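Give me the fold.
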Amino acid sequence: MQQNSRWNRRWQSVAFALFLIQGASALAADALALEWEERFRRLNGMVEELLGAQATLQKRIGTLSDEVRVARDEQGRSDTRFVRHDDLRKALDALAEKIRELDRKREEDKKLILDELRKLAQTPLPETSSRRVRRTEPEPTPAPATVLKGREHIVKSGETLAAILAAYQQDGVRVTQAQVVKANPGLHPDRLTVGQKLFIPDPSAP
């Protein structure tokens, strides 16, 4: 009975692991998630069938144990001890065969479930929605219609148009925001993106 109790705990652990796998599959894409859920249902069904088969075999073993007990009692009350002893031996052999059958069933189901778990482990997780989001490339600023004197500036992380102009003014380039906006048609000063190219016009140019 202790062996059966340990075996039950092991299968409960397997069932819990399968439950965790089902929870992880909920994060996958719909098509693959359905496949994972279907595999889990199959595994869960096999575990339930195995537990049901174990309960049935345990009942049979209990019945055989009762028959062995009755056979022993009859052997004590009968003079034909040789015949009763033979019946007892047959009952014990049948009991041993049932136990061996239960062990074989356990090993077969254990192998089948382990194979399914290996297949699940080898199945790649689907891309999550965050992985599917394509990186938005910075919109290139249209080139000015006329050839202007100036320089090109590539927007870096954390830069704002005001900060860029302040840096250029510190270097002696007294360019204004209005001049930059005019030199970069379609520019939105409050929506700069990293990597965006800006044309900084030379304020001294005619």
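Residues 2-130 form one domain.
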